[in-house]
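This section describes the prediction task in plain terms. A model, or a person checking by hand, is given the sequence of a single protein chain and must write out its three-dimensional structure as a string of tokens. No templates, partner chains or ligands are provided. The sample shown here is typical of the held-out split.
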Amino acid sequence: MTPVAILAAFCGAMAVIAIGRLVLDEHRDWVDIGSVLVVIGITVLATFWAALEEGWFSLVGQTALALIGTIIVGAGVAVMVRYWNTAQLSNAS
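The expected answer:
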């Protein structure tokens, strides 16, 4: 197992923790959701890097991982920027 695969596994663990904290938090807001999206996107990009190093997927699969990861990170950053100065989600008390 290469260091890149270990990095991808670590990012996966951090994504699970981030999702768990988001689900359990009573006072979540849009910035929290954007942060979780960024963590998930970084996990997908780390998996893409590991796929390049290890030759796990075809070129099409590797390209799909790169695009999906980039889109998720971009969406997370956009959500954080859009809602940075707004109040918490309306359904959270």
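For orientation: Residues 3-91 form one domain.
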